[in-house]
Amino acid sequence: MTLAPAPHTGPAAGPATGPATGPTGPAPVLSVRGLRVSFPSEAGPVEAVRGVDFDLLPGRTLGIVGESGSGKSATALAVMGLLPPTARLGGRILLGGRDLAGLDDKELSRVRGKDIGMVFQDPMSALTPIFSVGRLLSEALRVHRELSRNDAWEQAVELLDLVGIPDPRERAKSFPHEFSGGMRQRVVIALAIANKPSVLIADEPTTALDVTVQAQILDVLRLAQRETGAGLVLITHDLGVVAGHADDVAVMYAGRIVEHAGVDELFRHPTMPYTARLLASVPTVDSGVERPLIPVGGEPPSLAGLPGGCPFAPRCAAVLDVCRTIEPDLTAPAGRPGRAACHRAQEIADGGLDPAGQAAPVPPAAPVPAAGAAEPRAGEPGAGDVVLRVEDLVKTFPVTKGALLKRRVGTLHAVNRVSFELRAGETLGLVGESGSGKTTTLREILRLRAPEGGRIEVAGTDVATLRSAAQVRELRRDVQIVLQDPTDALDPRLTVFDLLAEPLRAAGADRAATRSRVTRLLDLVGLERAMGDRFPAALSGGQRQRVGIARALAREPKLLALDEPLSALDVSVQAEIINLLARLKRELGLAYLVVAHDLAVVRYFSDRIAVMYLGHIVESGATEEIFARPRHPYTQALLSAIPVPDPQRERHRERIVLAGEQPSAARLPRGCVFVDRCPLHREADESVRARCRTERPATVGAPDGSDHQYACHAV
Prior knowledge:
This protein is an alpha/beta fold. The strands form 5 sheets. It has an 8-stranded mixed β-sheet with strand order 18-19-20-15-21-22-25-24, sandwiched between helices. A 7-stranded mixed β-sheet has the order 7-8-9-4-10-11-12, with helices on both faces. A hairpin with a 6-residue loop joins β2 and β3.
């Protein structure tokens, strides 16, 4: 039986070629002219936004993209009137012909929530935890409209139903902490559209969400925009989201817009070198590993005392002498729609210059076998020694009730009979939604203690046989972790040199050996040796992650556990770290166990993938096999939910959007754990449906005899 995906439709309006200024077109609902925002600092004023101009048309979506610190969020906060009191604001923000820049907070409070709605990155920042969601929505309605309590409550229930909250009348009585992250974001969208504003601003609305929940939230945003007819400003770092949902795109760098064009034109023919590098640094789910990632390189400039010339000049592959002295205006190249701030924009538009520069091809992950020889697969002789073996791993947690006298009322099955092997020089990616058991599996391995159930073997040693702290310490050197947020692993009081030297000194290395090894580590991860004198606070996010990787490599481990190593980084920095990890694996023969939610990243440097759902591995196999021929319906839904940074493919490909929320691992279904959300289960005949409800599916191999395995009754 095959899964029938739902078609993915794009925005109602067609893509534009830039800000609309035609006299016959619809009037903009929002016009921003010469917007400037600065903040005081010890180094002088920080020019966060420098002369931003754009128009937003009704029913259309403007995507604003760029690295952290480019001015995206400061622009949104300025439009909403939510800048801190110390900020200085200049320019004009015209909403229906009214300039919001000159209004005080009391006047702006009549505009916010009525004419402009905002969806924040963290939904809890917009939800008062002591009020039910129904009351929050009711109050938002009554502030701007004359409604009785009963009428406001009824409209609040209708709004919850509109954004897809199940059983909205009952859930309106619930408090924000009783909702999942995706449901809280739905409530925030309901708050934003409650009074049918003409402008919606969504600031990174899906950053902290799983890919399946992200797909649901983006569909809800599209529905909300359609219901209100509002213009939407979508701020995001995910170029796939922009490709699928924006009509126009504004790329920001160093506080200003450096390219502005229709979404199709911008993705097909970027004219600004920064835009081209952003696009070239994004791994995609349908490109495999053949296309090399081209990082932007370098670091964004400080916005305090910005020097003259183009701010991107130090990082640009197409820089000229004039770029270092004169900052280019945002102009339209002849014969090309859209505008770009680049002295070489016309040359790029005419096809005479590659704005992204050239990149060296990615070296093969392993030596190419001799002619006629078959390359060994994972698990076969010659594929590397087994570094990690996990057999039938089980981990549960007690579910308790009561404030003072806690009593056990249930059991949460976090990991349920998970098994896999990992060999030297190989990468295994554990993927799945939050709550699937990925991180718990990782933590059980890193504990180096006998598990609750099953067996864990690291570098040939069964961890259950370790009897002393000395044995644990000796084995600990073979397995290290790279955390999601590198600051969690870096003591802010120590310099980079001391951070890297600390594990070496703990192992008894002398001063000369320590200094030599630290120098080697800095070289390995591509950091200048002079950075050894800096503290973590003086480093960028990408530099801190490189230090975290170097620290993990200090004692030459055999296995690196990487827990969401890229999710806290900008897309341009992600490309650098992906390339670094791929190089280190080749050079050092490392094994990687990667926990991640971004399957595009996982595909780029994983050899095998294991898909987890509610503590179970539901499908596993070689990466390209999983992506080319996914068998389990959950895997199919995960892959179809990943945004593709190509407007044509993203808007016309078929998607599978999972309904409902992942159930609690404390109340596992009797049969298949995916049965409540499975599209195949709804289409299957009654005999298969009965098996799905009552019998846990066994893991079976693919018919071609490969190591591709899956657990599903309906396939």
